[in-house]
Design goal:
The protein is an alpha+beta fold and about 290 residues long. Helices cover about 30% and strands about 35% of the residues. The protein folds into 2 domains: about 120 residues, Probable inorganic polyphosphate/atp-NAD kinase, domain 1 (Rossmann fold, 3-Layer(aba) Sandwich); about 150 residues, Tumour Suppressor Smad4, CATH 2.60.200.
Length: about 290
């Protein structure tokens, strides 16, 4: 078996660079042939994947976090048809690693195990539009408060998980709402909104269970809509995300859908798979069992 390793050396505070020799050693011990490709700058993964000779590999492995996997996925789908692609895999060494959890991959050794076992499964993929272009995500895409928190947390990445706590309190102090129109499979809802998450998988920010009922192969996205929560209510509700009980709040609504279109006033930044990328308006579509993952 031969695999391409798409490596983000900066993931997880430099874990990519530190762990790569160990990962390569463990792959060799399991008789896995590999070729590493190191991402040297932001967006480099898109160039690497566009030039990849995919027929030379039995799998393409992302070594990094959710953002690394996002760019690997989008780089491949921008240049190849889904059925042409070999299975994808994840060795999680990032700060979040949310999507990998739904593949039962919690540690980099689990990622190596998944390669050795070589038992791929078909996974749903969501697409979202930006003007006339289409991009893809497998974890979730959010907007509103959740994106504002992530943007603040990025400035404090050196504090690891604590950066999210900093982001939450900072953005709660500056809390404001936007107006949205959200069309879900032809049905319209509107009003003032705190945040929306379009979820293919369950987790966000590592261990926060944003969509406890989401499945990565059921053909539906789970949409979590949080209304006009007060600061006190928001702070009381956010810790419940770790167990998924936040959806019990009367101002938090859950929907299952194959297609959704959202407009907001003002425009809101999107957060697909942990990457600050894109703005509203956008249309999100579900693509049932589009890609294979190990």
């Amino acid at each position: 078996m031969k695999v391409a390793l798409i490596v983000n050396p900066y993931a997880g505070g430099g874990n990519g660079e530190k762990l790569l020799p160990l990962i390569e050693k463990k792959l060799s011990l399991n008789r896995i042939d590999y070729h590493p490709y190191l991402s040297l700058y932001h967006g480099h993964i898109l160039k690497i994947t566009s030039e990849l000779k995919i027929k030379d590999y039995d799998a393409i492995i992302s070594i990094g976090g959710d953002g690394t996997n996002f760019y690997v996925l989008n780089g491949l789908l921008a240049n190849f048809k889904p059925k042409e692609l070999p299975p994808l895999g994840i060795i999680p060494i990032g700060s979040g690693n949310s999507f990998a959890k739904d593949l039962n991959i919690h540690h980099y050794e689990d990622g190596i195990r998944s390669i050795v076992e070589n038992n791929p499964r078909w996974i749903d993929v969501c697409s979202f539009t930006q003007a006339k272009k289409k991009f893809y995500f497998v974890n979730l895409a959010g907007l509103g408060f959740v994106t504002d928190v992530a943007k603040t947390a990025q400035k404090f990445k050196c504090f690891n998980d604590f950066s999210y706590i900093i982001g939450v309190f900072y953005r709660t102090a500056k809390l404001y709402f936007h107006y949205m129109e959200l069309e879900i499979d032809g049905k319209m809802i509107s009003g003032e909104n705190c945040f929306v998450e379009f979820c293919n998988s369950r987790y966000t920010g590592g261990n926060m269970m944003m969509a406890p009922d989401a499945k990565i192969d059921d053909g539906y996205m789970d949409i979590i809509v949080a209304g006009k929560l007060s600061r006190t209510s928001l702070l009381a509700t956010l810790p419940k995300i770790f167990k998924g009980t936040h959806i019990e709040h009367p101002l938090v609504k859950c929907f299952k859908a194959k297609k959704a279109t959202i407009k907001t006033w003002p425009e809101k930044t999107l957060l697909p798979d942990g990457e600050v990328f894109g703005i509203t308006p956008t249309t999100i579509n579900m693509h049932h069992k589009m890609i294979r993952y190990l």
